[in-house]
Write a structure and sequence with these properties.
Low-confidence stretches: none
Order of helices and strands: HHHHH
Largest sheet: none
Number of strands: 0
Mean pLDDT: 93
Radius of gyration: 20 Å
Shape: elongated
Structural class: mainly alpha
Number of helices: 5
């Protein structure tokens, strides 16, 4: 569960910093048009921070971490966010600087979306497996919590 917490925390920090970068970079370059940089902040906070906070809550309820499927989900999903957001940064920075965006940038961003999709599929497969399992018994040292939550 700590991996999800730390991932959410890192994405929160990077998301806030990316919003600051967008504002200051476009101001320094006197840029007033549309740029992918304006979307980085939201993507990092929504896909990264909020996504991993939701995964953290699901993990607490369904004991997802510690399995191979969770590890695969974690790394595919993180790689997808990093690749996708990095290409948003490259695309947006080139736009602000007035340069042409190479065709490889959207292609690599598409690969990032594929990684995100694979990660989400793995998460749903793992959730589906956990939902099919019989209810887990609470640990023996927590009898009071078991009685109050029933």
């Amino acid at each position: 569960m700590r991996k999800s917490y730390y991932a959410a925390h890192v994405y929160m920090i990077v998301g806030v910093v990316s919003g600051l970068f967008y504002r200051e970079f476009t101001k320094a370059e006197d840029f007033t048009g549309d740029t992918q940089l304006s979307l980085m902040h939201t993507h990092l906070l929504a896909l990264g921070m909020l996504g991993f906070l939701i995964v953290l809550a699901l993990d607490k309820q369904f004991q997802l971490s510690g399995t191979k499927l969770f590890t695969y989900f974690f790394w595919f999903y993180n790689a997808g966010i990093v690749v996708t957001v990095a290409m948003m940064g490259v695309h947006g920075s080139l736009t602000v600087l007035g340069h042409d965006v190479p065709e490889t940038v959207p292609a690599i961003a598409g690969c990032g979306h594929i990684l995100l999709t694979v990660g989400l599929i793995l998460l749903f497969v793992l959730l589906g497996k956990r939902l099919k399992e019989p209810a887990r018994q609470p640990p023996a040292d927590e009898p009071e919590r078991a009685k109050t939550s029933a």
